[in-house]
Design brief:
Oligomer: single chain
Number of helices: 3
Strand content: 5-15%
Strand order of the largest sheet: 1-2
Helix content: over 70%
Order of helices and strands: HEEHH
Radius of gyration: 24 Å
């Protein structure tokens, strides 16, 4: 019986660590995509006032390609629009995963090291 409880406890903690790891991965990817989106927005704002026949260079698959502003701007705008949609999707997935993690944590009364330390300090202060 004691081994079964220990396995269950380890499984619960393992699942919690996996959920927090997934949340952290989503946050990292979201940050990366938001940076890309902001870069696309800056390029778009820079190119809009320019003459459509002006030369522009674009990095495509690691190769710098010469085009015109009129050719580059629509693809930059499309890419930014796609990034907006992906960011929204990832934000929704992150919120869902965070709720799932919080529910798992509450269900099994899991305390992080920081929370345990805060509770201990609070108890010490109450004793004094």
């Amino acid at each position: 019986m004691g081994d079964e409880v220990a396995l269950d406890e380890n499984a619960v903690i393992g699942k919690y660590k996996a959920l927090t790891g997934e949340c952290n991965g989503l946050v990292q990817k979201l940050t990366e995509l938001e940076t890309d989106r902001n870069e696309h927005r800056m390029v778009e704002e820079t190119l809009k006032p320019l003459d459509p026949d002006r030369r522009a260079f674009r990095l495509v698959g690691g190769v710098l390609v010469e085009r015109t502003v009129g050719e580059v701007l629509p693809s930059v705008m499309t890419n930014r629009s796609n990034l907006d949609e992906v960011v929204k999707t990832l934000q929704t997935r992150l919120e869902t995963k965070q709720k799932e993690t919080a529910a798992w944590k509450a269900k099994y009364n899991i305390k992080t090291a920081e929370e345990t330390e805060a509770i201990r300090k609070e108890q010490m202060q109450q004793q004094q």
